[in-house]
Design brief:
The radius of gyration is 17 Å and the shape is globular. By secondary structure, the chain is α+β, with helices and mostly antiparallel strands. It contains five helices and five strands; from the N terminus they run H-H-E-E-E-H-H-H-E-E. A three-stranded antiparallel sheet has the order 2-1-3, covered by helices on one side. Strand 4 and strand 5 form a beta hairpin. It starts with a helix and ends with a strand. The chain has one domain.
């Protein structure tokens, strides 16, 4: 799981993604005001209260989506834009095939090129979470990471 400062900044600036957060067990997050000094937290539920962290009610957090959660956002996007038929197995197979092929095309077209415009990415996307977040932002919101913020594609 990527908990680097770069990924935290990408997540913080992805306001659309932050709005999708439904707090669940296993979610990674950091405190918004001190994320650069913070160790990421994981939502977990224990009967014992050792190493528990208590937060202020009005404290703000940055959700750090895992790769499976980012893939879930893409799957939902595909499901919302596709008519389902009676063959659910075929449908799921097509959905996974589409997602993997789309991600593969995205990586081949965008990664490893010097940053010249909002159509290509710098070589500094260093984790699968960063790549999948960039893919989700491009597919769902038509935005591209410029190293500091998400830009709307023109």
């Amino acid at each position: 799981m990527d908990t680097s400062e770069e990924y935290i900044l990408m997540c913080k600036k992805a306001k659309e993604i932050q709005k999708l957060w439904n707090h669940e067990r296993g979610d990674f997050f950091v405190r918004e005001k001190e994320y650069y000094r913070d160790t990421p937290f994981v939502i977990d539920f224990h009967k014992k209260i050792f190493n528990a962290h208590w937060f202020k009610k009005d404290e703000k957090f940055i959700w750090l989506p895992r790769q499976d959660q980012l893939q879930g956002i893409i799957i939902k996007l595909y499901e919302d834009n596709t008519e389902k038929d009676d063959y659910q197995i075929r449908y799921k197979r097509e959905l996974l095939n589409w997602m993997i092929n789309s991600f593969d095309s995205f990586v081949k077209q965008n990664v490893g090129k010097p940053y010249k415009s909002n159509d290509s990415y710098p070589d500094n996307l260093e984790s699968m979470e960063q790549l999948w977040l960039a893919f989700v932002m491009k597919e769902k919101y038509q935005k591209t990471w410029n190293g500091k913020d998400w830009e709307k594609n023109v």
